[in-house]
Amino acid sequence: MRKPLGAALLALAIAGAGAAPAVAAPVDRAESFGKSADTDTATSVVRDVVTSTTESLNQVLNPQVRAVDFAGTVSLSNCSGSVVRFPDSEDNDPALVMSNGHCLETGMPGPGEVVVDRTSSRTFGLLNSSGSRIGTLRASKIAYGTMTDTDVAIYQLTTTYAQIKSSYGIDALKMADTHPVAGTAITVASGYWKRLYNCNIDGFAYRLKEGDWTFKDSVRYTSACNTIGGTSGSPVIDQATKQVVAVNNTGNEDGQRCTVNNPCEVDESGNVTVRQGINYAQQTYQIPACFGVDNKLDLSASGCVLPKP
Questions:
Q1: Which helix (H) or strand (E) holds 204?
Q2: What is the pLDDT of residue 38?
Q3: Exposed e or buried b for every residue in 5-33, given b needs 16+ CB within 10 A?
Q4: Quick check: 305 and 179 in contact, CB under 8 A?
Q5: Euclidean distance between the first and final Cα of the chain, in Å?
Q6: How many beta carbons lie within 10 A of that of residue 214, not counting itself?
Q7: Residues with Cβ < 8 Å from 214, sequence gap 6 or more?
Q8: Where are the alpha helices (DSSP H) in the chain?
Q9: Residue 124: which residues within 8 A CB-CB, separation 6 or more?
């Protein structure tokens, strides 16, 4: 499990390390899993500042790496997320925010647990293309959340897509409904850190086991996407189509085998592979089939394979 940011940032201030990355509000309960907010030491925070500055310079010198920006992403108190819509969503539907199941304010769902239609008033900071916070969105409920087979949370908002567009000029990110392809150029867009990670889909893990949780058909990044705590819930965006193909959630930090923050890959024959320093996401193409008219969750719909309560 990851620790909160407080101690690391206090040490950074004492060390006089200069400007620190944007920091969200205090962490909610029990959310130190995977890539939720944490930096273990002041050194890791400083390293992120240096890395972010280097990436910003590279974007100026090489503009094509900015094909994806922050518009439509959101910051949570401890994680990242995005305003998303499905192929059949309409402008007047209540808007949805996607993050990770392990980022839920109610705590991490246990194996086999599925949260459906639970009242929530959680707020999200809406970002524009440059990563500036331009508004606050509020949830009316957790429409769906789980850490079984996948690691996803879908919040329904009190505003529609049309209202968000009218008030802030921001469109929701479109979610693809087809399986992503290995080799695809992607961007992991973190609203928490206001940071973009660019890499490719390296392949897929048949099963990804982390502590008591098991995820299916997970996206494996190439090493350039060295995501850190706070990037949990970030949309993984296909650079060519600009559509969301996955949600960032975890990575193997210490080379340990199948422990929390050290997921391992398990193939169809049961063989285990540990890839230290490699990070992962959960595919999202299966989600649209589970939402119908007015963005209403329907786990009994044809083609819906998300775990049920």
A1: strand 195-210
A2: 57
A3: beebbebbeeeebeebbebbeebbeebbb
A4: no
A5: 25
A6: 17
A7: 111, 148, 149, 207, 208
A8: 6-15, 42-61, 161-168
A9: 74, 75, 76, 81, 97, 136, 137, 138, 139, 155
Neighbours of 85 (CB within 10 A): 22
Q: What is the DSSP string of 108-145?
A: PPPTT-EEEEEE---EEEEE-TTS-EEEEEEEEEEEEE
Neighbouring CB atoms inside 10 A of 98's CB total: 26
Calculate the dihedral angle through the C-alpha atoms of 38, 40, 43, 44, rounding to the nearest 10 degrees: -40
**Residue stretches of the chain with pLDDT short of 50:** 1-31, 39-66
Q: Which two tokens stand for residue 20?
A: 């620190």
C-alpha 67/C-alpha 156 separation (Å) is 28
pLDDT of residue 43: 31
As to burial, measured by CB atoms within 10 angstroms (0-12 exposed, 13-18 middle, 19+ buried), residue 254 is exposed
> Letter for the amino acid at 281?
A
pLDDT score of 53? 43
C-alpha dihedral sign at 62, 64, 65, 71:
positive
Compute CA distances 86 → 20, 145, 183, 189, 211, whole Å.
36, 17, 24, 19, 31
pLDDT at 124: 98
Distance between CA atoms of 103 and 96, rounded to whole angstroms? 15
Kindly give the pairing relationship between strand 272-273 and strand 123-127.
Answer: unpaired
Tell me how long the chain is: 309
